[in-house]
Amino acid sequence: MTPQEPELVVRLKGSGWHAELVVAAPVTAEPREVHFNVPAPGSPGGLRLISTGVRYTEAHSRQASHWQRWHVKIYRCANRTDTEALRSYLRQQASDVQGANADLPGQEDRTPIEPPWAVVPVHIVNTDGSTEILDGTVQTELELAPEDLMRQLRGVYPTWLFDGGVPSPDLYLLAVSPWMKQLSWAPFLARPAVEQLPDFLGMGAGLDALHRRGMVHCDIKPDNVCRYHTANAAGFVLIDIDAATRLYPPPESLRYTRRWAYGRLAQGKRSDQVLRAHDRFGFALVVLCTLAGREWVEQTLLSGLGGRAADDRDAVRAALRRRWQNTAELRWEPLIEAAVEPFGREIEHPDWSALLWVDSLINAERACVVRRPAPGPGPGDRPEAARSESMRRELDGIRRTALALPGPLPARVRHGYEAVQERAWELAVRNALMSGAAAGAVVVVAVLVLAVIVFGMGG
Question: CA Rg, the chain, in Å?
Fold first, then answer.
């Protein structure tokens, strides 16, 4: 932006909060052509295809907040009719996303620009000077006084906004959303990364909520999943709802990534059951990318000369059994059986739930630990063996304490640390007047217990 050009400032307003975003000029002025199926005027249930040019840039907040950086899409339509149709379509998308996010737990004291989210919220901004109000909760507008609109041809808007053409604010729309950082996916994991499963609960609940509202994301894949982390919330979240569509009326065309598509959708089936299953199938693959590694999913489940393993539940089960080898302490079969559930026709049922599936994975992981009674001391133990047996009993006692409370792996690890601290304090008090060897024994116990927790409980 040259010094002579004005700033383009977007204002977001809500109950008790506001934000002012300064939009930067796009790095390139060349727009990308994107097509949308929008409701056809005067034809109830009918759709028509409109083409828009889209450029991408970013904005930065003037306020100190969690979201200093924002993602911005600039849409340019061919005429005012298309602009109004696209505005209505994008407004419906934004409303559906906001409604799904509002269904998540922990919403009581949050604003619409604060997580938890299932889908990153998008706010639509009109460049013709009018105010956009979404469901009475979020208001967006450009920072323009009424007299500025009369002077728009004299440089009120930055020249980059109009693609180098004649200034026509009524042909443009902005969509702004908090900037999400792309994830770095592990390629292969020998043991399932079960500690991340709880962070999928919100995304699963949000996907269920979207479907209840009659909307499908339609392009769930690793590239469209990010992670947010604030002082109050953390989790995985969906981005990029440009491909999202309403289930009714049935869409005439769809935008999705074929490699990550549900098999029956790729075969040409377009019912509402298949569209919901397509979302659920993509969600299940993303969860497996976290558990087993993205490259493993792509190479083992989504590739193959004889067809994709992901389209056959038995093939997915066999692949997971080969990947996750059982050990003396762990049996992965309960987790495998839960993980293969979405790779069958059951996900087409209207009541199938992504949230309940993630919850079943968490419960199945708890059942994977093999608990065995500790053997008693054998006859003829030497004094050294007796001391080893004493330390073994300490380890077993602490481990039982850590495992006594229910919870997924991260919770059990935390219980283990707490048990170590409690037992170490007891030993320290008991042996306060003894030699330094006792203190050394406490350190050894702590180190060994951590090893037992990490390697014996699946860390």
Answer: 28
